Amino acid sequence: MDSGAISKLRSCLNLNNDFYIKRDDLFPTSFGGNKARKAKLFFEEIDKTNVDAIITYGSSSSNHCRVIANMSAMRGLPCYIISPIENYKSTFNSKMIELFGSKIIQCPVSDVKETIDNKILELKNKSYNPYFIQGGGHGNIGTKAYIDAYEEIKKYESIEGIKFDYIFHASGTGTTQAGLICGKILNNDIKKIIGISIARKNPYGGQVVLDSVNSYLEYLKKDKVDIGKVNFIDDYVLEGYGCYNKEILDKIKKFLIEDGIYLDTTYTGKAFWGMYEYIKKNKIKGKNILFIHTGGTPLFFDDLEVLINE
Ligand SMILES: *Cc1c(COP(=O)(O)O)cnc(C)c1O
């Protein structure tokens, strides 16, 4: 199967809808996922410049930081990762970041901005030309990555002669969702794009998505849109980032066994469960529903022990 390919799911979740999945987890660099898709575009920009050091930000389980560390190492660029000290734990992603030779700088979450600014200044004083990539690959370049993904979805629709009524996915920094919404606006589509928040609550979470959408529309010199264009659902965040429950574990197990596809408790498993609950709650029936697998493969292995013991 091609990376990012779409296929129909065997499991119907007993919800009387047709389910499809887009496998962005198979994006071909550094264990894939939406962060690899975004990072590819960031590095296309970076490769055109004389940047000689990379700085970014993320937690110890961040897929974004793993991908950026890997892509920096591929180019022989030093990479600095600012990481909040709160809840820092060793994960497969953090181990890979070490393997790639990135320098992890831990600081309290309240000092993140200052720590980033200081690192940039320090590198400049040493005659480096550093490039800062926002946490999660946030920004217009990240948004563009999911406009491209939206075009792939359109292509699938036209080849297969179907239309998706809904797209569901895990929403974090909101960049993925912003790209999908921009893609929808640019195509004059009516499908519903439902971002299942994995951490943030409204109104903040939805507002960040909207700001990203409008930032991109502004760049295209198009009219801004309002919050009515954003479906950022915060009903399934539980106690916050990384928190999960027994139903999420059950969904992950069942999906792996029935469809052979792995999900994790922080992002995709949580969103998959949220999608299930949302469809039930809103009595959605007889629709074509696309779930975007946004990646996070290493996190599945972090979760394996709890899955077994569950
Ligand atoms: C970061 C991440 C998300 C959220 O993407 P955003 O663009 O930050 O909203 C979803 N799934 C996985 C696996 C991620 O790593």
Automatic annotation (TrEMBL):
Keyword presence, Transmembrane helix: no
Active site residues per record: 62
Sites of N6-(pyridoxal phosphate)lysine modification: 35
Keyword match Magnesium: no
GO molecular function, one term: D-cysteine desulfhydrase activity
GO biological process: alpha-amino acid metabolic process
Pfam families per the UniProt record, alphabetical: PALP
InterPro entries: ACCD_DCysDesulf (IPR027278), TrpB-like_PALP (IPR001926), TrpB-like_PALP_sf (IPR036052)
Protein origin, superkingdom: Bacteria
Keywords assigned by UniProt, alphabetized: Pyridoxal phosphate
Cofactor(s) the record lists: pyridoxal 5'-phosphate
Gene3D superfamilies: 3.40.50.1100
Tryptophan synthase beta chain-like PALP domain ranges (all copies): 15-295
Entry's family note: Belongs to the ACC deaminase/D-cysteine desulfhydrase family.
Protein name: Pyridoxal-phosphate dependent enzyme
Lineage of the species this protein comes from: Bacteria, Bacillati, Bacillota, Tissierellia, Tissierellales
